[in-house]
């Protein structure tokens, strides 16, 4: 083609002979091959050779071809023009695809042209750059390609990630809402809840992830299909088939969603541990009834919020939720045997690819996890001098900030930032933020700001004025309440440099995220608030004035989902009312020191932040909680009460967290075409099962493991989460933010103002900066990079940056068909292999301490990194008066 592209307004080779399989469409074989190339059915090599026999095609492919064949060019042009407007600043819309749409629209032939058959368009350097292995980016047949791109956008999805894991057609006859589906899903929810609840207090924890469970669901479904007799079971008016036939993709997907909805441990478990354990508050009134009231209310308040967020984060096509895509990709790989089409020479099916990679990951994980642990924490710079505090501060994995060109060979660490799931631009923004945070922490530490040079540089613990871990009991009376007399003797707790910067970034992020999102995405935010208001008002009407999908009724996936009966809004409202009642009962009938208005206040805070937080997470994959903000506000509103703080913190954090959890599951169902009522039932019952199991396990642990939450507990059940929960309740509850901000760390209160002020230059750059940079500039994510410290550091994200660049940028750009077919299978296989392997390693060789002692397992734990030498620069005992910090008699 040289330096020009040509528009051919008429079909190529109109006299070309069509075989019988092509006769259903008025398209030539050349045109069909171009369509198949764009849909990822064939590769560029096959397209160029033309040697492909078009026989039976997938239903989704045939559907798109039919749409293209019957679409008028004028309709296509209108769709393309609307898409250019809608996706102008959409960072998830591939840039080369956007350029293709621009060239198609700008090349519309005019009636006064003498030559309508061949119109030359300049092919600039930026366009040629993206043409590698992407023949479809050349305009070969203008009419066909205009209809092709319009069909993908309007009748499937504008995003290749979604086209890779979903179909443009749906078969309502596929079994989904079956007894066996629920039984298998609830069974693994029960098993998974036991394991996850037991090991959540271990450091590092062990869990059965959704990826792992998906592997177990398949044989369960197949065994049920083969051995369980098909009988009709009746219970009154309810009847169902015990074994309706072949185990289906939708059943597999619904079972996966049932588990993923309750895969985590209820946040209130931390409340129960902190309240009941003698080493914490040791409260005797924390009965099982109180635990049930607290846990049900915190878990289900978010459920009610999910109702009003469907039109904001489920129905819109722009709400991708990139972190959930591997779940669907894995299901498709396990259930759908795809044809072994060659993709850049790769003929292996997705399922076999999963088996091969998963097996490799399972075997390989034994090396960094057991045989050669130095490959996991590959802190090789510290091996040069393990006693150098400055070297460890900068490069250390365990005690430092983790600056290391290649810090690990362990997939569990490489994937800490979701390197194969979140978009590359998100990962880069976050990593840049982490690098800036790294520099800020070093400046704070080496200038000894707020005495940080006397403490470890990267710790999430609190320290006293002698640089020892803060003993919170030293400032509490016999009733575990704050004692000002004891406090004036002991003094306040101090942050490490990283922890101080992390809290400052948190306070900066909250106002910035809301204001920036409102300013830059005002139209979508306005539409979101309108949608929320419509959802609320519709919930109180007997008849809705329009489709429940509102302005998204024409979206192809919404159209397919509209075939299924939606969940009545009053179901969600009933759950919201009941869970709110349980929350009120928990604080009224038990001495939680918490006023009733506190419950409604946390609900209001979550409602305000819900739209911007979920909007950010649904497009970028980046999310953050409201726990720090709630700690701050409650600390001011209810001073000197750690119990009130952790009570409201459970609501303040968990409402939005659970709402996002339920919303993502509904989005999974949206992509997989699972009936909404089936999802509702599955989510509701699995959450109840998870609550019952988690409370049972927690109370058994509290009553039978005497040293649980001790730093040296023999089974590593040291409770890092519960300890952090307790320390924060003392810092912001018992002591209170007034003391922290007024005398100890006054700089922190200015971080809120800094967050507001940063909005102005960031908005200016977004609107006026270099187009290529401004398009991918995500300052909320960048500030979020500051949160990747204390106790984590750069070593958890550096290796993932390289992998993200290779797979989420280069391969996605240059080998899109390979990426669409294998990328999400790759991350699922690697994660599943690690999960199975880690469980086996723990129960077979680590639980009974069968460790291998050799250089490869000890070198990374030498000196300061292994805790054998103090991880501090300055000696607190050499400070004036023999202690650091504020002088006695001047404590805030």
Short synopsis of the structure:
This protein has 892 residues and is mainly alpha-helical.
Low-confidence stretches: 1-21, 112-130
Number of helices: 37
- Measured distance between first and last alpha carbons: 76 Å
Largest sheet data:
2 strands, antiparallel
Indicate the percent of residues in helices. Answer: 55-70%
Question: Using DSSP, what is the number of strands?
Answer: 4
Strand content: under 5%
Mean pLDDT: 84
> What structural class results from the helix and strand content?
mainly alpha
Whole-number radius of gyration?
Answer: 29 Å
Strand arrangement within the widest β-sheet reads: 1-2
Coiled coil: 77-104
GO biological process, one term: protein transport
Subcellular location: Membrane
Main location: membrane
Could you explain the architecture of this structure?
This protein has 892 residues and is mostly helical. The chain contains 37 helices and four strands. The strands form two sheets. It has a two-stranded antiparallel ribbon. A two-stranded antiparallel sheet has the order 3-4. The protein starts with a strand and ends in a 34-residue tail after the last helix. The relative contact order is 0.14.
């Amino acid at each position: 083609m040289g330096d020009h592209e040509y528009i051919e307004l008429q079909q190529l080779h109109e006299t070309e002979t069509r075989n019988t399989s092509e006769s259903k469409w008025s398209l030539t074989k050349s045109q069909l091959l171009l369509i198949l190339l764009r849909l990822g059915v064939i590769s560029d090599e096959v397209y160029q050779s033309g040697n492909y026999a078009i026989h039976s095609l997938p239903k989704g492919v045939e559907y798109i071809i039919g749409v293209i064949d019957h679409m008028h060019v004028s309709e296509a042009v209108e769709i393309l023009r609307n898409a250019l407007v809608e996706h102008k600043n959409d960072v998830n819309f591939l840039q080369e695809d956007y350029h293709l749409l621009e060239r198609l629209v700008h090349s519309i032939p005019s009636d006064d042209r003498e030559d309508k058959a061949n119109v030359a368009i300049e092919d600039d350097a930026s366009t040629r750059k993206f043409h590698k292995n992407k023949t479809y980016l050349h305009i070969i047949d203008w009419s066909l390609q205009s209809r092709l791109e319009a069909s993908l956008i309007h009748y499937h999805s504008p995003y290749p990630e979604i086209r890779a894991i979903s179909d443009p057609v749906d078969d309502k006859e596929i079994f989904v809402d079956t007894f066996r589906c629920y039984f298998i899903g609830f069974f693994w929810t029960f098993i998974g809840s036991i394991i996850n609840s037991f090991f959540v207090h271990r450091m590092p924890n062990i869990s059965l992830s959704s990826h792992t469970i998906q592997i177990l669901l398949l044989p369960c479904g197949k065994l049920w299909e083969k051995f369980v007799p098909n009988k009709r079971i009746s219970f009154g008016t309810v009847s169902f088939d015990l074994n309706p036939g072949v185990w289906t993709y939708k059943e597999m997907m619904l079972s996966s969603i049932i588990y993923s909805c309750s895969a985590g441990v209820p946040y209130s478990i931390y409340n129960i541990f902190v309240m009941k354990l003698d080493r914490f508050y040791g409260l005797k009134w924390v009965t099982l009834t109180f635990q049930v009231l607290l846990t049900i209310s915190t878990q289900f308040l978010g459920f009610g919020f999910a109702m009003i967020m469907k039109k904001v984060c489920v129905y819109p096509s722009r709400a991708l939720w990139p972190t959930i895509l591997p779940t669907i990709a894995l299901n498709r790989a396990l259930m759908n045997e795809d044809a072994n089409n060659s993709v850049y020479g790769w003929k292996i099916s997705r399922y076999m690819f999963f088996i091969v990679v998963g097996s490799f990951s399972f075997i390989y994980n034994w090396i960094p996890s057991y045989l050669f642990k130095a490959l996991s924490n590959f802190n090789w710079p510290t091996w040069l001098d393990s006693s150098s505090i400055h070297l460890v501060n900068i490069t250390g994995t365990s005690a430092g900030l983790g600056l290391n060109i290649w810090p690990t060979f362990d997939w569990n660490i490489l994937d800490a930032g979701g390197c194969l799931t979140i978009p590359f631009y998100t990962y880069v923004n976050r990593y840049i933020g982490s690098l800036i945070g790294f520099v800020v922490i070093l400046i704070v530490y080496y200038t000894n700001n707020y005495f940080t040079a006397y403490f470890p540089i990267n710790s999430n613990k609190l320290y006293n004025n002698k640089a020892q871990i803060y003993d919170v009991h030293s400032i509490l009376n016999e009733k575990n309440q704050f004692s000002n007399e004891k406090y004036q003797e002991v003094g306040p707790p101090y942050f490490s440099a990283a922890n101080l910067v992390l809290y400052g970034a948190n306070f900066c992020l909250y106002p910035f995220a809301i204001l920036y999102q409102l300013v830059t995405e005002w139209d979508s935010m306005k539409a979101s608030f309108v949608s929320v208001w419509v959802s609320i008002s519709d919930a109180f009407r007997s008849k809705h004035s329009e489709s429940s999908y509102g302005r998204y009724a024409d979206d192809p996936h919404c159209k397919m989902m509209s075939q299924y009966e939606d969940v009545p809004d009053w179901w969600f409202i009933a759950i919201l009312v009941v869970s709110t009642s349980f929350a009120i009962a928990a604080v009224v009938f038990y001495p939680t020191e918490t006023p009733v208005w506190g419950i409604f206040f946390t609900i209001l805070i979550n409602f305000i932040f819900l739209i911007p937080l979920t909007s950010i997470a649904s497009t970028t994959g980046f999310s953050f909680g409201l726990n720090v903000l709630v700690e701050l506000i409650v600390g001011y509103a209810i001073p000197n009460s750690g119990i009130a703080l952790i009570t409201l913190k459970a609501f303040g954090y968990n409402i939005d967290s659970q709402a996002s959890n339920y919303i993502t599951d509904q989005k999974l169902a949206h992509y997989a075409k699972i009936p909404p009522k089936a999802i509702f039932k599955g989510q509701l019952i699995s959450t109840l099962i998870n609550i019952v199991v988690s409370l049972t396990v927690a109370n058994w642990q509290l009553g039978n493991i005497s040293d649980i939450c001790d730093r040296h507990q023999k089974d590593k059940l040291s409770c890092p989460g519960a300890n952090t929960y307790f320390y924060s309740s003392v810092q912001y509850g018992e002591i209170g933010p007034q003391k922290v901000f007024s005398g100890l760390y006054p700089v922190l209160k200015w971080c809120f103002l800094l967050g507001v002020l940063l909005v102005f230059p960031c908005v200016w750059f977004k609107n006026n900066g270099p187009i290529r940079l401004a398009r991918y500039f995500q300052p909320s994510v960048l500030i979020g990079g500051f949160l990747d410290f204390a106790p984590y550091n750069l070593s958890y994200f550096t290796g993932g940056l390289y992998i993200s660049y290779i797979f989420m940028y280069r391969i996605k750009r240059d080998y899109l068909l390979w990426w669409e077919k294998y990328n999400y299978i790759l991350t699922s296989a690697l994660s599943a292999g690690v999960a199975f392997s880690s469980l086996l390693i723990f129960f077979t060789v680590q639980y009974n301490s069968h460790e291998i002692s050799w250089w490869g397992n000890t070198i990374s734990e030498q000196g300061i990194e292994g805790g054998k030498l103090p991880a501090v620069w300055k000696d607190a005992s050499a400070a004036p008066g023999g202690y650091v910090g504020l002088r006695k008699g001047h404590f805030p």
